[in-house]
Design a protein that fits this description.
The complex is a heterotrimer. Helices cover 74% and strands 0% of the residues of chain A. By secondary structure, chain A is mostly helical. Chain A is built from 14 helices and no strands. Chain B has two domains: 256 residues, P-loop containing nucleotide triphosphate hydrolases (Rossmann fold, 3-Layer(aba) Sandwich), CATH 3.40.50.300; 108 residues, OB fold (Dihydrolipoamide Acetyltransferase, E2P), CATH 2.40.50. Helix content of chain B is 30%, strand content 31%. In chain B, the strands form four sheets. In chain B, strands 6-7-8-3-9-10 form a six-stranded mixed beta sheet, sandwiched between helices. A five-stranded antiparallel beta sheet of chain B has the order 13-12-11-14-20. In chain B, strands 15-19-16-17-18 form a five-stranded antiparallel beta sheet, with no helix packed on it. In chain B, strand 1 and strand 2 form a beta hairpin. In chain B, helix 1 crosses helix 4. Chain B is globular and about 80 Å long. Chain C is mostly helical. Chain C has one domain: MetI-like (MetI-like fold, Orthogonal Bundle). The relative contact order of chain C is 0.12. Classes of the chains: A mainly alpha, B alpha+beta, C mainly alpha. Chains A and C meet through helix 2, helix 3, helix 5, helix 6 and helix 7 of A and helix 1, helix 3, helix 5, helix 6 and helix 7 of C.
């Protein structure tokens, strides 16, 4: 084994890593090569994602943005989408929050099953689901936004479940519930005053994903003949492509800003309560429950 | 489960360690391992506005185990990580056998490190984990397996060689981590609070094992901990740190009996704070009616408290003594008597349990101090 | 364990504000009945799932075996679905999904790793994560249009590339074949990958990296022996998900190709919209059945892989 002195004698000096301003100390961050590679990747990604947006912007022209808001159908379709979002959100929260809490507390063995079930809506092609839905549901509901609201709950379920589940796991639900109960609180009080406030960040994540879903879902809405915002964008494209494109870009940017806002507020709140960073959970999250009982 | 493995290892470990360590020591003797000296010279580490290390200097002799002891945030882990190469000092140098290693990357420093917890590679068995360092040094699979097997035997885990980290208990994982660090026959062994995450009984077992192994192999070791019992029982010398500085580096008994500063006096072991009156010039202090010299370094005027250890206080039943027994706590060989003195003052006195019979709550006692010099600290307002 | 839960949560034993009074446990029901009562709590959820998800699904699966007009059991739908244009559709869909899952999986991993090493809460990290959340849901005509506006033969970016003598169209590129569609798919597949691989990356402990370094491993060795093996199950399971996502995509493909490339999802859409040859109405359901079978296989693999990953990334 070479003596360390040999390195000094041979003049082996790695780049002196006395980075001013301190470093995180992590081995990864120290290596000089790494940051370059990181920025290269992000640059390529940035180009890939932003260039088409730019091209579309150029096509649409700035003036198109102004006229978006006054175009017929914009307001009504957006309003439809917002209503559907609200409906989906209410049902999803009312359904998933109590169920997840309940399963965590009293049916821990079903957690693995629940997790697998909540993956289904992601992997079953919406198109297939739509076929079934159109066949099964009564005629009165078809082509109304109520059906969409009901079905969007199914589509939103994976994200909502995962966000809530992760939130519950991070707060040691069982101990909190027992402490609350021991101090005399009934069930409703416990949920309202103890559990929900501590779930703030995950509820926020879930909300964000629900909204993004409702404002972007096209397949089911169009096949169900409901004019939601995404559907309107497509239909209008045939009339005036520029306005349509402006509308989509607008929707994209607004959703993104909305998301950033929610996440920033959420993170600040979370820092105060020590709940940790708000992250967007989609599918995998911590799956330590799979395979265990 | 912890107790089972503890019981299993106690018997196995004692003989295994001695035998196996002798084998390893013999085979490494050919490498002319007389031991490596490590020197930290004036290390400073600044993070933005905070100074994690403030001019810390330490010389570690070959084969010595030095424990860095201190509260969290005192810089002990930072110092260790600088020696390991995971962090860089802002100023100062680290010398290994007289050579500056600051430019040498961590992977080439030939030091074995044991982390606090969960540092075993989860995708490898215990045997593969231990053999990893050897694999990095291009040892052949046969050599790797043999050496790793020897080391696992040394820590008493031969039976678990094929198991994966998630199948091992915390104590077992740390033993594998230790074996892994030692497999590369490092010049220096670095331990970053390796026992903190373990439960009490396992901790005691591992303390012995680590110390025995280290002594047999003669590896220079730097051990970081916040547990003073650990430091005192394991180390050749203890370095007590606070706020980035070393307050005292001395043998455990020295640190305990002759603390250099008030901080060391209170951090290590239990200390009583008893009000006293300083004599003229602050050279003497009168405590509980006895006048004794004052250790230098403290305040020389104003209201002060004297620092005296519970086992150094004398106590005896007395009709009109200066105190009343408040509580008697049985600690096994010793009993700790809590005495109420005048002025709402509580002191702790340790005496052998055999003589504690008379110390019942409410009994009148006389508490006295020895004639040795004492540290004084300013009395809080 | 069951006992404590019983005491704490048994219905009717609310202690309310009069704390300190331990309520009597209600008379114990026989064991099987206890289990039923406990299961009662998830009835709302179960009902919703059954009505909203399983029944439609079953309707499709059953319909696949039924003659559209008479309702009689038949294999003719399945037969039609696995031959000719529809078989070709499956092949194309699988091929497309392969391209549109492997490439974004790799690139998404790289992007995720690039931002993951930034300090927590940093603006860059937040921005990329939220952007991923938005783009993962972006698709259909708007997305198609974005790319038509940039990469069609007369579009902006194509023009730029021509200026630097990179004539992609003379090299056979087009947005309207499998490769082109795959390129467009990456727009939502990459963000999806970033979102789902991040938790796995966070499971890679820095202590492993440092321990490896301490034992003499440089970056490459670490990734080869520890990092990648530990990450792989998660990576593969995310790959499964991306594959399923690409397979199910409808709106984007429809908008881009308008049916010129046979893809299963589009074929189903066409059949729903009623532009069908008589007697073939239920072929759509048979196609749906086919997709579900493929996805079921994927999901089993996914679960198995996740189990593996969970063991290590504790």
């Amino acid at each position: 084994m070479a003596a360390i002195g040999t390195y000094a004698k041979q003049g082996w000096i790695r780049r002196q890593l006395r980075t001013p301003g301190g470093d995180t100390g992590s081995a990864v961050a120290r290596s000089g090569k790494f940051p370059v590679w990181r920025w290269a990747i992000l640059l390529i990604a940035g180009v890939y994602f932003l260039l088409p947006l730019y091209a579309a912007l150029r096509f649409a022209g700035i003036h198109a943005f102004g006229s978006v808001f006054t175009t017929p159908g914009f307001g009504s379709s957006l309003w439809t989408s917002i209503q559907i979002s609200a409906m989906t959100w209410i049902i999803t929260m009312a359904l998933m929050v109590p169920t997840t809490i309940y399963v965590h507390l009293r049916l821990p063995r079903l957690r693995a099953l629940l997790e697998s079930i909540t993956i289904l809506p992601i992997v079953i092609p919406p198109i297939v689901l739509t076929v079934g839905v159109l066949q099964v549901f009564p005629i009165q509901l078809k082509a109304t936004m109520w059906l969409l609201g009901i079905e969007y709950v199914i589509l939103a379920m994976p994200f909502a479940y995962r966000a809530i589940d992760a939130g519950l796991r991070s707060i040691d639900l069982k101990t909190l519930t027992e402490a609350s109960s021991n101090l005399g609180a009934g069930w409703l009080t416990t949920i309202w005053r103890v559990i929900l406030p501590n779930l703030g960040t995950s509820l926020l994540s879930a909300t964000v994903l629900i909204v993004a879903l409702c404002l972007g879902e096209f397949t089911m809405a169009s096949l169900n003949l409901v004019q939601t915002f995404p559907v309107w964008i497509v239909l209008f494209d045939q009339e005036n492509a520029q306005i349509s494109v402006s509308a989509s870009i607008l929707a994209l940017v607004v959703t993104w800003l909305f998301l950033m806002l929610i996440v920033t507020i959420g993170t600040r709140r979370a820092r105060r309560t020590g709940a940790g960073e708000v992250t967007l959970f989609t599918v995998t999250a911590n799956t330590t429950t799979i395979g265990e009982s | 489960m912890a107790t089972n493995e503890a019981a299993a290892t106690t018997s196995a470990a004692a003989t295994d360690v001695a035998a196996a360590a002798a084998v390893v020591a013999a085979t490494t003797g050919a490498d002319a391992r007389e031991g490596t000296s490590v020197s930290l010279r004036d290390l400073t580490r600044v993070f933005g506005a905070t100074k994690a290390l403030d001019g810390m200097s330490l010389d570690i002799a070959p084969g010595e185990l030095v424990a860095l002891l201190g509260p969290s945030g005192c810089g002990k882990t930072t110092a260790l990580r600088i020696v390991a190469g995971f962090e860089t000092a802002t100023t100062g140098e680290v010398l290994v056998d007289g050579n500056d290693v600051q430019g040498v990357p961590a992977a080439k420093r030939d030091m074995g490190m044991v982390f606090q917890s969960y540092s075993l590679f989860p995708n490898m068995s215990a045997l593969d984990n231990v053999g990893f360092g050897l694999r990095m040094r291009k040892a052949s699979p046969t050599v790797r397996r043999k050496k790793a097997g020897e080391l696992l035997e040394m820590v008493g885990l031969s039976a678990q060689a094929g198991q994966f980290p998630h199948q091992l208990s915390g104590g077992q994982q740390q033993r594998v981590a230790l074996a892994r660090a030692l497999a590369i026959e490092p010049r220096v062994l670095l331990l970053d609070e390796p026992l903190s995450a373990l439960d009490a009984k396992v901790r005691l077992q591992l303390r012995e094992q680590i110390r025995t192994l280290q002594q047999r192999l003669g590896t220079t070791t730097l051990f970081v901990t916040h547990d003073q019992e650990e430091a005192l029982s394991m180390a050749d010398r203890v370095g007590v740190m606070r706020a980035g500085k070393l307050e005292q580096v001395a043998a455990p008994d020295e640190v305990y009996d002759n603390p250099a500063t008030a901080f060391v006096a209170e951090f290590v072991g239990t200390m009583n704070r008893i009000p006293g009156d300083l004599g003229s010039g602050g050279e003497t202090v009168t405590v509980l009616g006895t006048t004794v010299p004052v250790q230098s370094g403290g305040p020389t005027s104003g209201a002060v408290n004297a620092l005296i250890r519970p086992e150094n206080l004398t106590i005896g039943a007395a009709e009109n003594g200066n105190g009343i027994v408040f509580l008697r706590t049985f600690l096994g060989a010793t009993s700790r008597i809590t005495v109420l003195l005048s002025g709402d003052l509580q002191v702790l006195v340790d005496i052998p349990s055999t003589t504690a019979a008379a110390m019942v709550p409410g009994a009148s006692v006389a508490v006295g101090i020895p004639s040795a010099a004492v540290h004084v600290v300013p009395a809080a307002g | 364990m069951a006992d404590t839960t019983e005491l704490v949560t048994a219905p009717g034993s609310q202690t309310g504000p009069g704390a300190g009074r331990i309520s009597r446990r209600p008379a114990r029901l026989p064991k099987p009945l206890q289990a039923v009562v406990r299961l009662a709590g998830i009835v709302p959820f179960a009902a919703y799932i059954i009505i909203g998800l399983f029944i439609p699904l079953i309707a499709v699966l059953i319909g696949a075996f039924q003659n559209a007009s008479t309702g009689a059991w038949t294999f003719s739908n399945i037969d039609a679905a696995t031959h000719g244009a529809y078989l070709h559709g499956f092949e194309q869909s699988l091929e497309l999904s392969l391209i549109a899952s492997v490439l974004p999986a790799v690139f998404g991993l790289l992007v995720a790793y690039a931002i993951f090493t930034a300090k927590r809460g940093k603006v860059l990290r937040q921005m990329v994560i939220t952007a991923s959340g938005v783009f993962a849901n972006f698709g259909g005509v708007p997305l198609a249009f974005l790319f038509i506006a940039s990469l069609s033969s007369t579009a902006l970016v194509t023009g730029w590339l021509n200026d630097i003598h990179l004539n992609i169209y003379s090299d056979g590129f087009t947005l309207f074949n499998l490769v082109g569609v795959a390129v467009v798919y990456m727009y939502f597949q990459i963000p999806l990958m970033v979102l789902i691989i991040l938790p796995a990356l966070e499971g890679l402990r820095p202590a492993w990296r440092e321990a490896a370094e301490n034992l003499g491993a440089r970056s490459w060795s670490y990734w080869r022996h520890v990092g990648w093996p530990v990450l792989m199950p998660s990576f593969l399971s995310c790959l499964m998900l991306l594959f399923g996502s690409a397979l199910s995509a409808y709106a984007t493909a429809e908008a881009l190709t308008g049916g010129t490339i046979p893809l299963t999802s589009i074929q189903i859409g066409t059949l729903i919209n009623g532009n069908v040859v008589a007697g073939q109405a239920n072929v759509g359901k048979a196609l749906g059945l086919g997709m579900v079978v493929i996805i079921a296989i994927l999901m089993t693999l996914y679960v198995v892989l996740q189990r593996r990953a969970a063991k290590w990334l504790r």
